[in-house]
Design a protein that fits this description.
Elements (H helix, E strand, L loop, with lengths): L12 H9 L10 H6 L5 H13 L6 H14 L25 H15 L34 E3 L8 E3 H12 L3 E4 L6 H14 L7 H24 L13 H12 L7 E6 L4 H7 L5 H8 L20 E6 L5 E6 L9 H15 L9 E8 H6 L1 H9 L11 E6 L8 H4 L7 H5 L4 E5 L3 H18 L3 E6 L17 H9 L3 H11 L5 H26 L25 H11 L10 H14 L7 H13 L5 E5 L14 E2 L6 E2 L12 E5 L5 H13 L4 E5 L10 H8 L2 H5 L6 E5 L14 H6 L7 E3 L4 H13 L6 E5 L24 E2 L10 E5 L3 H11 L5 E6 L1 E3 L3 H8 L7 E9 L5 H12 L4 E5 L10 H15 L6 E2 L27 H6 L1
Helix pairs in contact: 1-4, 5-6, 8-9, 8-19, 8-20, 9-17, 11-20, 12-24, 14-24, 21-22, 21-23, 23-28, 24-25, 29-32
This protein binds thiamine diphosphate and magnesium ion.
Amino acid sequence: MVRDLQSSPDRDPALETLAQLNPNRSSSSPSPALGRLGHPGNAAFLEELYESWKSDASSVDPTWRAFFEGFELGCQLRPPARAGATTPAGGPAPEFGNVLPQARIYNLLFAYRALGHTLAHLDPLGLTPEENSDLALSTFRFTESDLDSIFDSGTLGGGGPRTLRDILTYLKQTYCDHIGVEFMHIMNFAIRRWLRDRMERSRNQPTFSPAQQRRILEKVIAAESLERFLHTRYVGQKRFSLEGGETLIAVLDTLLESCPASGVEEVVIGMAHRGRLNVLVNTLGKSRRKLFTEFHENYVPETVLGDGDVKYHLGYENDVVTSAGKKIRVSLAPNPSHLEAVDPVVEGMARARQRHRDDTVKREKVVPVLIHGDGAFIGQGVVAETLNLSRLEGYRTGGTIHIIVNNQIAFTTLAPDSRSTRYCTAPGKALGLPIFHVNGDDPLAAAYVIQLALEFRQKFHEDIILDIVCYRRHGHNEGDEPNFTQPTLYSEIDAHPPVGRLLARQLLESGVIMEEEIQKIRSQIDTVSEDALRESREAVTKFQPKLHPPISCPDLLREVSTAVPAKKLADLGESISTIPDDFQINSKIRKLLDNRKAMAAGKSPLDWACAEHLAFASLLTQSVPIRLSGQDSRRGTFSQRHAAIYDLRTRARYIPLKNLSKNQASFCVYNSPLSEAAVLGFDYGYSLDCPEMLVLWEAQFGDFANGAQTQIDQYITSSESKWGTTSRLTLLLPHGYHGQGPEHSSARLERFLQLCAEDNMAVCYPTTPANYFHLLRRQALRKILKPLVVMTPKGLLRDARATSPVADLTRGCFEEILPDPDITKGARRVILCSGKVFYDLRDYRTKNKITDTAIIRFEQIYPLHTQKLFSILSRHSPEAEIIWCQEESENMGAWSHLALKLQNLIGKPILYAGRDASSSPATGSLAIHNLEQALLVQEAFTSASAKPSKPHPPAHEGKREAKPRASSSPTGKKNPKNRKKK
Ligand SMILES: Cc1ncc(C[n+]2csc(CCOP(=O)(O)OP(=O)(O)O)c2C)c(N)n1
Ligand SMILES: [Mg+2]
């Protein structure tokens, strides 16, 4: 019999207290809340209130708070009050032990839902977990003798009366079997309830048809067979075997099988080394012949122009046909060795693909799937950065399915050295994601969870984590001896039967499959492998390894028509400065917009931000979509851009560039979270799959880009050579020495230049708004896809010296090398420079009335337009001294990249005028900065003090005493920075 809460003979004092506390209470009409308690069916109501209170006490009203506090108190493990005991105050002791039993049932339900996973059988190699005292019967003040008492089971699996024994069995099946789930940390109650009901309805037990079970077995066997085949045919060759985690292949198959019914058309996968070859063959359908060919020592990639990559980093894309004959597009992103670096790239790719499938609202057609290792998921910061993108307007992808192949080891490192958390999935908890841990030896359970995960993702558009707890049968790779460091673990693993054998036994026992059928599956797969091996051997005899020529792209220096007619610019100027009538905006912004209008109309010189807006506006009206993302990019770090305008009263946002014309292309500008690695990776991924778009990532200051160095080194600069993938991603990196200290002066131009080869990208440092305008337009309009790195201005944004007449936008194109506008020929000294220092040099020349020195600007440092350079140089004296001047230290900036190159090109020594080599990019003192800047500018005009080009001397030889220049100091003092160093 269900114990009626109100008619219970041992009516609870807490409830009495509650009744007294309830302000709505009246003796004749119970409060609505209490009234609801009168019905056993409303137990669910109480239970949900209880859950609410557990998560956040302030979420329930004070009456209920008092009740639950008392209730919890009563549930504590306190000894029942002794008869006749009194409190210190002399009154009767409170009867803690007699709290309403039904209420204790709710506590039990809550506890199992929250902590059941601690008792789940998750580890294929582990023992049954020990009892968790928080889940012991006694914790809820029940004893064995209560097991057959009947209670209301609240929301458990549809509710209704159940014995305590049945309730426990139900809870254990659902939460403590082969699936352990963490979901009670989810703050969204609708999600939490959905998960609870969904899991409890099925008791978290898979119910696959026999055909589906056979398919799952087949996939596990396929995974196993491929590994065994590779193991025996390519002994000792690295493949990063999946063995121990073969369940992954069954999980991915179940996911793809479930896609059509869920409206999914495309899946974008990112994963690391472990099991990648297996996924390529058994999930994406890459041919075994191709894979085996790649194993051959003479193998040379056919399609890659560049250096190629090892087979376990290559990407692939295919249409996978499900058992129902439906096609799903599946791609596996190429990835570098750097674990988890692929995560944001896949997210960006998925978002771009959603755009192409017109799926930008619900994002249900393209699903990103990230497959992680346990060590990398908890260890790598980019995981947290990427998770944090998941709900942001500019970076959402509608929910990522994370699968962790948790083999409980990272190379040789075990969990105690790997993490401070119980589970490797802990980063997901910060986001409130559902986390399912599954015993990897139970592929049916894992397949059940992936179905649930997809259903969840499609319903709530949130990330979800499936943690497949498994083991690694071999060493880290196949040449690695695990017994050196894990002798005990590996003796256990050696004795442990493979997943396929366990599942086969289970299905044989349940009569789902016959032994002969299993044999047939195995031999069929082996035959396919044997045939493929034979074919691959034939193919491989054709390979003749030979060195490939460097990738080259002469078209990178071809002029692109980027001018825009004056009338068009004036019209665009009007559009970008017009705000709806009902918008009230800040008066300074109004002035800024009025200035932009005047600039575009040619009434005043253009500044950078206006040139950029006009470049964007002209492209958008030429049907080129634009995406700009970065920290505070809507306003601009230096309050220069103001791409978004806000209403003073409502903060309604208006973006003029989105309102140019009806059929303009889309303009997307986002303030990114404070992350470099994930955001740059995301924008890179986006740019790969949206080649028609101008995708720009902006660093807050250029030096922060080194927080994303992995993305720059591993993807942006080298992916064309490794994987044949490139994009027109554009990096805007504020750079320039303004005496603001060692941070934020340098965007590390030298680093980008060091990465330049084989025409892999363009690196530019424009000095005028007009050239910046042409550069942006060139990047968007030319057919060639190459990344562009731009050193962008800080102080020059508001420097009258660095403005352009609008006429410069209406003619010409991007100038890689800018000749001296004043001294056009016959100079006896030529200063070469790049970027901001040009203005200081020119001022010095004017002030000192120097007329024999030309200043030539390298607006594009890579690839160098040597023809233009020669043509400009040829106008000056052949005897002219040539000096490279830069404000960056000698070991930084463009000098080290250009020194020998220029010397070889020009055929004579190039002198150097600039700061000494230094470990930190700049001084912390404005006064010293100013002095250094004055010196280096003066040096450029005084050949005696400039240094001839030569390879960098070691630091101890690089001191200034080798080249005294005290006489050249305008103050008569030695260079203060040198003095400091001595
Ligand atoms: C960023 C990074 N650091 C270090 C490594 C070297 N490394 C390669 S695999 C590996 C262990 C990875 O462990 P886990 O994530 O658990 O994956 P598993 O190999 O066990 O599948 C390490 C440290 C790497 N590839 N990337
Ligand atoms: Mg691992």
